[in-house]
Amino acid sequence: MQPKPKRRTRGRLVETSLRLVNEFGEPNVTTTVIADELGISPGNLYYHFRSKDEITNTIFRQFEREIDALLDAPGRRTATVEDLWLFLHLLFEAIWRYRFLYRDLNDLLSRNRLLEVHFKRILERKVAAAALLCGALAGAGELKASPGEIEALARNMVVVITYWLSFEYVRNPRDPQEGPIAARGAHQVMALLAPFLLGESRALVERLSREYLPD
After folding, report:
1. Residue 125 shares a structural domain with residue 162
2. Number of compact structural domains in the chain
3. 12 and 66 housed in the same domain
4. What SS3 string covers the chain?
5. pLDDT tens digits for 134-161?
6. Looking at 99-108, 145-154, 197-206, which range is the least confident one?
7. Range of the domain at 14
């Protein structure tokens, strides 16, 4: 048999590693476990990645590219409440795809310098995107808040975005309920925003929650 191309094997390693760390948690997955799951030798794995941290960093860069593309979106057009709902929904879907980063966040940051530096940047970008969206709603007359309130609101939104999966996991660790988790997360963030919304915009938040959340 001809050996599989290096790129294909490397891609399978990243894909399998992501699935395993999402399912079992990053601290519980070793390079031996990854190699066994793929049916390759540890030596074959180390030919592509010198350590588990290198695999984690490769996955993180993949996540970072996806999240950066999402965080660029708020500056491209005038925002509405529906735009904000969609933005949050897509953001939570991306977080779910790389959920180990959020569930194991403190442990990862304590021992991985790349993640420590880059995740801090992602947090600030999330705050800036949330503030931009809230400011756009205020400018359109859909939201009433002072600049200081918008700044605090944006940071509170990011706190919920960042730690929502940890809350969900602790609440029910054996039943992650993948389907509605993005809608539930978006709803919780929009609940922070709702008291500042005016008229039809506030009613729209309630309608969106009824539409996307299961009974």
Report:
1. yes
2. 2
3. no
4. CCCCCHHHHHHHHHHHHHHHHHHHCHHHCCHHHHHHHHCCCHHHHHHHCCCHHHHHHHHHHHHHHHHHHHHHHHHCCCCCHHHHHHHHHHHHHHHHHCHHHHHCHHHHHHHCHHHHHHHHHHHHHHHHHHHHHHHHHHHCCCECCCHHHHHHHHHHHHHHHHHHHHHHHHHCCCCCCCCCHHHHHHHHHHHHHHHHECHHHHHHHHHHHHHHCCC
5. 999 998 889 999 999 999 999 999 999 9
6. 197-206
7. 1-50
